Amino acid sequence: MTACKKEEVKLYQDTDPSLYFTLSAYSYSFMTDLDSTSRTIYLPVKLSGDLKDYDRTFNMQVVNDTNTTANKDWYELKEGRLPKGSVNGTIPIVLKRNAVIDTTIIKLKLALTPSSTLDTMPGASIQISWTGKVIQPINWNWLRYYFGTPFSTAWYKFIIKATGKSSFPYSPTLARTDPATWSMTYPQIQAYSLQVKEALQAYNAAHPDSPLTHDDGLYKGQLVSMP
Amino acid sequence: MKKLICYILILVAVFGISCIKDKSTFNTNKINPIVIDTTGMSAQLIVFQFDTLKLLPKVTQTGMDSSRLKYKWTMNAYGGYERVVGTARQLVARMEETPDPTPYTLILTVTDTTTNLKTFFTWTLSVVSPFGQGLIVADTRDGVTSDASLIMAFNFTSSFATDSATTRIFHNAYSGANGDQKMAGLVKQVNYMRYNSTKDITFLTDNSFVRINPNSYKQTNKDNDLFVLAPGMIKPDEIQTAIETNQHQYIINNGKAYGRYGDAKQFGYSFLAPDATGYTCGKICGLQNPVYTLQTAGTVYDEKNNRFLLLPRMVFMNNPLMSFNPTDFSDPAPAFDPNNMGNKTCLHMMEGYDQRIISIMKTRDQDQYFAYQIKLTEPRTGKMGIMVNDLSNNPEIALSRFYTCSNAEQVLFYATDNHVYATTLEVGSPSTTTLRYTVGTGEKITGMKMHTGGGSMYLPNPQAPDDWSRRLIFSSANRLLLLSTYNENTKEGKIIAIPVELLGIGGLVTNPDYIKTYSGFGKITAFSLQGI
Lengths: 227, 532
What we know:
The structure holds two protein chains of two kinds.
Chain A: E1 18-21, E2 25-29, E3 38-48, E4 56-62, E5 75-77, E6 80-82, E7 88-96, E8 106-113, E9 119-120, E10 125-131, H1 140-147, H2 153-163, H3 172-175, H4 186-206
Parallel strand pairs in A: 1-9, 2-10
Antiparallel strand pairs in A: 1-3, 3-7, 4-6, 4-8, 5-7, 8-10
Helix pairs in contact in A: 2-4
Chain B: H1 2-18, E1 35-37, E2 44-48, E3 52-55, E4 58-60, E5 69-77, E6 81-86, E7 91-94, E8 104-112, E9 118-128, E10 134-140, E11 145-152, E12 168-170, H2 173-177, E13 183-184, E14 189-195, E15 198-204, E16 209-212, E17 219-222, E18 236-242, E19 248-253, E20 256-261, E21 281-286, E22 296-302, E23 307-312, E24 322-323, E25 344-351, E26 357-363, E27 369-374, E28 385-390, E29 402-405, E30 411-415, E31 419-424, E32 433-438, E33 443-450, E34 456-459, E35 472-475, E36 480-487, E37 492-502, E38 507-508, E39 516-521, E40 523-530
Parallel strand pairs in B: 2-9
Antiparallel strand pairs in B: 1-4, 3-7, 5-6, 5-8, 8-9, 10-11, 10-40, 11-12, 11-13, 14-15, 15-16, 16-17, 18-19, 19-20, 21-22, 22-23, 23-24, 25-26, 26-27, 27-28, 29-30, 30-31, 31-32, 33-36, 34-35, 36-37, 37-38, 37-39
């Protein structure tokens, strides 16, 4: 008779709504926006819990361990927002740029801050990294046929500015195993190289006393030239 | 004993049940099959796209009322394509399927609506393009939008061996193939390009490029699609194709020239200037047969710096434009300096006799007109400007709007609104000009071009010029002058095809029997050959 006793079914009670980052890491390069001195990026978060018919706000804090090398003046933390009726929210952070950032990769570890209305999931953290540093692309062994062998920060920045593109995924060798990543075609890289050549000719014509030169690397001080 | 009796009773009961009469209402009726009889009909059919296919197979079901039968005809293709094209025993269907080398499957399904019994019959059906070699005509009827038609006729289609062959004019083929949508704007140029199986037709309006498939006339690309890198602005100026050999195509957009070669569908980046002064061009001419020894494929005129520039070879479309060699004025001195044309603008550029590039030029601020002739040589020399004709005193030259020539004679045709003149351009001789044609009352010339495509034409036999039965047949390429005309009162546009009877002086045939007219268009704004 005890086994047959009616038992009330327990319904889920959202007593502890929690947030978490949907990404574990976020990298940003100022190469995609050469002229800017700062950039606001929006980190995606998600809610585990009941929806509400009003907006909710939340914050994040710096985790000061070995995964953080950023000076506190190099970023600004902003308040996050979880819109009403949604499980998807964002929290902005302003990444800044200076001479140090242009030469190194900056790291910053952040964790969501629990509040009385919105808790956080265990390990709700994200690793941010950003830089203004120009790094020679791995496929320069192909790009050199179109932009010349010498590589320098000034030259690559010029290429990016002339084309409006921050990457040139052209590599017939790498495309054999990863065609999705190395998707740029021969006609495309050829067209971009002509676009850059036209811009270089215009730049040098406009600056007859200071034509474009390589500013660092093995060819520092030499005139930029194209095949 | 009792046990035995018990077993016997059980057996009797079982046998008894087995022998009960079947009183169920289920019945078994023999249904006569549906028979589709296609005796005398080919199982492999070929139709032109947009033609109407008619089939009437015999369908029988012995002893049954034919009204029980339901019909469904479907066009099917690989990938799940299916279109119902008929619901009666007789198929009468317009074939709108895209021409494809892989045949479609036409399926007739006949269903007995009472029993749901179905019978099928299938045909393989090849849909082929009706649009072959001919003349593409772009016109407008409202002054705002354009359509395109195709004339397939003796004059333009090599397979039409005589003029008694039926002329096929596909009026409004563009809108018919594109959901009754016309092109926005007025077409100012149209051009056909083919390299092996890569074929397309491109229309230019003031602010757009429209590309279609010549097999279907369906739009395939537009504006930025034509370029590897989208230009900042779409502002079409000119298009030209070298169609004879090593097919390649040039366009000018917003003052910059672009080229594509072979089966490349897109234009690369615009040709770079040969120097820091840059260039802005509006006219271009690539040679139809650029011989392999030449390091250049043609010329453009740089309106910014008043000079001619050389195109790179068609296989080096990524190379920059080239300057002409410094002019060598040593004896025999060239006729002009292509590097310095003075304050002149180029009205038209075309290939003429002996692969000379002829440019009709006008002094920008005066009514002075000239025909400059350039002969490209290898090695390039400073003597390539071989001839200049001053046209300033030619009759009605200030009213001229259209220019063309044949590679079979040293003659320039120019047209005003109603007159066509021929001017000789023989090197070393003074030019003479003759009025060769006047359009009918109320007609106005809206375009003029020497035909360079396929087809044939008739000319009077010099031995019996008045005897039509002894007429001679010639290829129409470079011998048939095409005019487009428009009558504002009747709102009708026409193509008038006038053979050149006397080569060397631009002697257009005068016997009207030899002049063909193709009518039924709106105001024609551009026309061009369509190749095979």
